[in-house]
Amino acid sequence: MSGDIRELYQQMIMDHNKNPRNFHALKESNRNAEGYNPLCGDHFKVFLQMDGDVIKDIAFEGAGCAISKASASMMTTALKGKTRQEARALFEEVHKMLSRRIGEVFDASKVGKLATLAGVCEFPARVKCASLAWHTMCEALEPTGKQVTTE
Fold first, then answer.
1. What is the average pLDDT value for the chain, to the nearest integer?
2. Contact 41/132 with Cβ under 8 angstroms?
3. CA distances (Å), origin 108, targets 23, 72, 114
């Protein structure tokens, strides 16, 4: 990763960690799920307010490392107003981006500002941190009744 991109990555992660967007319980939620990463202790609850097939509002609360909190914050800003299908498609693209091999190319236009999380793939142990909120959102969106965990 080039120096400029690494710096942007670090700034974005720190900003979303210190000032997380949509970081609160959502009283009007009609869907929610809880996710936990037992290895590092990241623990989040994701709240969705669905209006038919559209995510009218989304929020999260909990605690975790800077990467997991920033990823959750960025996820909520990216998904508000999206349809269920758009949210699933974005999850798939983000998951591919995070879990790709170093040097493997991905289409940044498919993830927008979330591309600043692309550097996580250089730290394999942190992929689970960055993806926890996303997996939790998927469970809230389409409940299976399974415990959300990155293990």
1. 92
2. no
3. 26, 19, 8
> Torsion over CA of 80, 86, 92 and 93, rounded to 10 degrees?
-80
| Domains recognised in the chain with CATH numbers | 3-149 (3.90.1010.10)
For residue 12, pLDDT beyond 80: yes
Residue 94 corresponds to which tokens in the numbers above?
């983000």
What confidence tens digit (pLDDT) does each residue in 76-128 have?
Answer: 999 999 999 999 999 999 999 999 887 788 888 999 989 889 888 888 889 99
Beta-sheet pairing, 43-51 with 31-36: antiparallel
Distance between CA atoms of residues 89 and 45, nearest Å: 21
- Strands in 43-51's sheet, in edge-to-edge order, are 54-63, 43-51, 31-36, 148-149
